[in-house]
Request: fold
Amino acid sequence: MPTLRALMRILRLAERAVHRVRYVNAGRRGKRESSVLPILLGDAEGLGEGVDAWIVTSDLQGVAPGWDGANVLLGVALVDALLELSEHGVLPYPERTGVVLAGDLYSAPAGNVRGASGDVREVWEAFAASYRWVVGVAGNHDRFGEGRERARFEATDGVHLLDGDTAELDGVGFGGVGEIVGDPDKAGRKSEGDFFERLDHVTRRRPDVLVLHQGPEGEHDQPGEPRVNGALVDFEGQVVCGHVHWERPRATNVLNVDGRVVVLRAV
Reply:
């Protein structure tokens, strides 16, 4: 990949949501809670040639009614909501919009199990079916099938699941490392050595955008993994992450989209 070009840069991010998607997620003791997923608008430079917007989100761990009224994963219902906003002129055309996913898109079917893990291919495929491309990483609760199933998914047109590698889309370089640091014998976790070896490999290629599930610390009220901060000291691009929630979604060159959707429009 060539060296860093004109940086992708977020210029503005609205504080108030332009729309909210209602959903159900797991509370304590198996109870279900009603929640809302905010969709925020922002402006950015460097989104790529022929691209009018990016949809950036993560940690969509809930269920919501789909087009036929039956419960689907929140990410699938979100696609329907976003397409409707485009039809009404609130958002740009899907064919000129890319999607960035930072992981954890699964929920138990009834939305009543905290920390459930499972297959999220249908969320990625729903975005890929309507949008220009989908790029991102796995969260620690995401599964993508095994063997040939996973290989078939990763070969889907427009899908770019990154884990220690990079992709160039419309002239913008993306890199990504999925999952979190932890016991590698447990699903969704990597050893410290593996995680940071992959992260070093990606950052050496100097992508414009680095997608992580487990991101760095921000400021005093923006929790994260301090070891990631140390690995990104010289990284100049935009970081997108999730895994832990920030009330304020931005810090320097980091955008945290845990439990929110950010639609960045090209200026």
Notes: The chain has one domain: 9-266. Residues 74-87 form the longest helix (14 residues).
